[in-house]
Structure formats: C-alpha cells, structure tokens
Amino acid sequence: MLIQRSPNGIDLPFSSEITPREVFESRRRFIQHIGAGSIAGASLLAMAGREAFAQNGANPKLPARLNPAYSSMDKPSAYKDATTYNNFYEFGTDKADPAHNAGTLKTRPWTVTIEGEVKKPMTLDLDALLKLAPLEERIYRLRCVEGWSMVIPWVGYSFSELIKKVEPTGNAKYVEFVSLADKKQMPGVGSRVLTWPYVEGLRIDEANHPLALLTLGMYGETLPNQNGAPVRMVLPWKYGFKSAKSIVKIRFVKEPPRTAWNVSAPSEYGFYSNVNPEVDHPRWSQASERRIGEDGFLARKRKTLMFNGYNDVASLYAGMDLKKFF
After folding, report:
1. Are 185 and 177 in contact (CB under 8 A)?
2. What is the C-alpha separation between 59 and 13, in angstroms, rounded?
3. Which residue among 19, 193, 212, 293 is least enclosed by CB atoms within 10 Å?
4. Which residues make Cβ contacts (< 8 Å) with residue 111, sequence separation at least 6?
5. How does DSSP assign 101-122, residue by residue?
6. How many C-beta atoms surround the C-beta of residue 248 within 10 A?
C-alpha cells in the first residue's frame, strides 16, 4: 500500500489577491461570446492564468486555468443558488438542508483510498490529490433527475489522471465510488431514505472519458461542505445523483457496483442514468428542465438535450438500447 502525503496545506490568499465577485461573474459572462479554440479563447486562458479567482467566506482559492474546450457557453448560475439549492441526503432531504447542516463536516484531515483491481493501490491525502495533476476550471451544465439544472464553474482534472497513476488490471471493468457516512458529522445518515454509505459507479470507459471530472473546487475555490467537499465527481452528461460527493474510497471492480439509488428504486434510477429526454422518470417527464435562477418557478422551461448536450460521449453507448439501459 503506497501512502502519499504532502506536508503543506493550501495557503489562504492575501486580501489583495481576491477578485471581487462581480469581476469573476463578469469574466464568466464574457466567455459566452467566445468559441472554444478561437484566438479570443486562447487570450482568455492567458488572462485566467494571471487573474486571482474569486473568494467567498473561508474557502481557499485554487490556482486553476480555465479550459475553454470543456466549458459551457451558458451563463453560470449564481454562487448563492449553487450553494444553497442542492441534494446531499447525508445532510437532509430538503434542498436547503445541506447549506444549513453541512457545517459539521470536517474536511481535514481527509484521505481517499484507491483499491481493488489495480497494480498500484494507494491512499492519497487531500494535498496529494490537489497536486496529482494540473487543476482546470470547467464550466459544466448540471442536470438533476428532478427536472432542474444549473451551470457551475468546477475545478479539478480528468479522472483519467488518477486512473493512470493506479494502473488498473485487465479485470477492472467498473469503478465504484464510496462516500463518507458518519452519523456524528452527517445527520441524514441516520435516516432510512437510502442504504449507507452512498455508493455510485461507472463503467471504466466512462470513468476514462475526459469529461469525467475529479472535482476539488467550484467558482475558483475549494468545495463548500454542502457541495460535496472536499472531493467529488462531476459527470455532466449524467443526472446529478451519479456524481458522488465527499468520496473516501474508490474501488476498481469486475462487476457493476450496487449503487445507492439503483438499489433503493431500480425502476426509477438506472445504473447509467444518462440525461435522456426520451426516457421519463416514472413520476415526471424528462423532456424539459427549469434552470435555477431564471425568473423563478414560472420561467419557460428549457428543452432537455440528449446527454445534457455533451454529445461526444455518444460513442460510449454505441449499439446500446438506452431505453433499456437507462
């Protein structure tokens, strides 16, 4: 077992380094007018490298460069919306519960164990995870199975970077993600709404796709507790519940993992859970969505896009019946 630890934490920024919120959001609006790969996009990358990121509360900033190749041109959601309206059942079932209750979560020290069908099993602390690969900022659309969506600037790197480090064996067909389940820190873990710990999973080719993001921050900062601190997955072509939060263990396995929602309600939550407007949830349509922050609950709904608009993942499912394998 290889254990890697870094002696230093993340330094908090000086006040002079902090970009005001309005400047940060203005810069994000600017990219709506830029095509990925354009000269302007290259200029934006250089600007992102020079700028300090915005700072909110006590969360340290992260030195990430914007990757326009993996950034939605949609207007990012407001930071307040993204941090006060979300699902994290370990802290309660209401959308406001995580922001109210997640202050009890202790994110340092933190380690993630990688094990199973790998040649190099290891345990990484948070600092080692932060330094495993260059951090990128990617602006991804997030679609919830309940019919709402947001656009969030995430910070991390492709999960494939970690896969390369641990060297999976030929028996590794799936990747299992296990979240923390601590009743002392997480009041929701005492409920019977799910079987704990929360478990999610991917096929290994899905986990290797460049869009699969091992995520350590959002809006230029480390993750707030209520958004899955200190490390989570973000899979923008799948419904939000597939993106495991507060990960403590990653296992490479031969068989499909028994994932939390699929075990709880298999007729409602399939293993793949790709965003698909043609496959409705038994209790509501998936053909449209409501973007949080757009003129309240009476706003005109948006049409749901196949794979949430991330069509470069389509080759992963060539020949599959996506109504059967939902």
Report:
1. no
2. 10
3. 193
4. 123, 124, 125, 126, 248
5. HGGG---SS-EEEEEESBSS-E
6. 17
138: which DSSP letter? E
The alpha carbon dihedral of 156, 161, 165, 168 has a sign of positive
pLDDT per residue rounded down to tens, the chain (326 residues): 444 443 334 333 322 233 334 434 444 444 444 444 443 443 343 333 323 233 344 689 999 999 999 999 999 999 999 999 999 999 999 999 999 999 999 999 999 999 999 999 999 999 999 999 999 999 999 999 999 999 999 999 999 999 999 999 999 999 999 999 999 999 999 899 999 999 999 999 999 999 999 999 999 999 999 999 999 999 999 999 999 999 999 999 999 999 999 999 999 999 999 999 999 999 999 999 999 998 665 667 899 999 999 999 999 999 999 999 99
DSSP state of 275: -
Angstrom distances, CA of residue 140 to CA of 111, 126, 234, 309, 319: 26, 23, 9, 10, 27
Cross-strand pairs, 151: 141
Burial bucket for residue 266 (CB in 10 Å: 0-12, 13-18, 19+) = exposed
Of the candidates 119, 228, 208, which has an alpha carbon nearest to the alpha carbon of residue 159? 208
Q: How far apart are CA 222 and CA 205, in angstroms?
A: 28
Please tell me whether residue 263 adopts helix, strand or coil conformation.
Answer: helix
Report which of 166, 132, 124, 133 is spatially closest to residue 3, judged by C-alpha positions: 124
Q: Which two tokens mark 91?
A: 């802290």
Cis peptide preceding 230, ω within 30 of 0: yes
Count CA within 13 A, CB hemisphere, residue 128: 17
User: If you search the block for the tokens 């031969």, which residue do you land on?
Assistant: 254
CA dihedral 1, 178, 290, 140 (to 10 degrees): 0
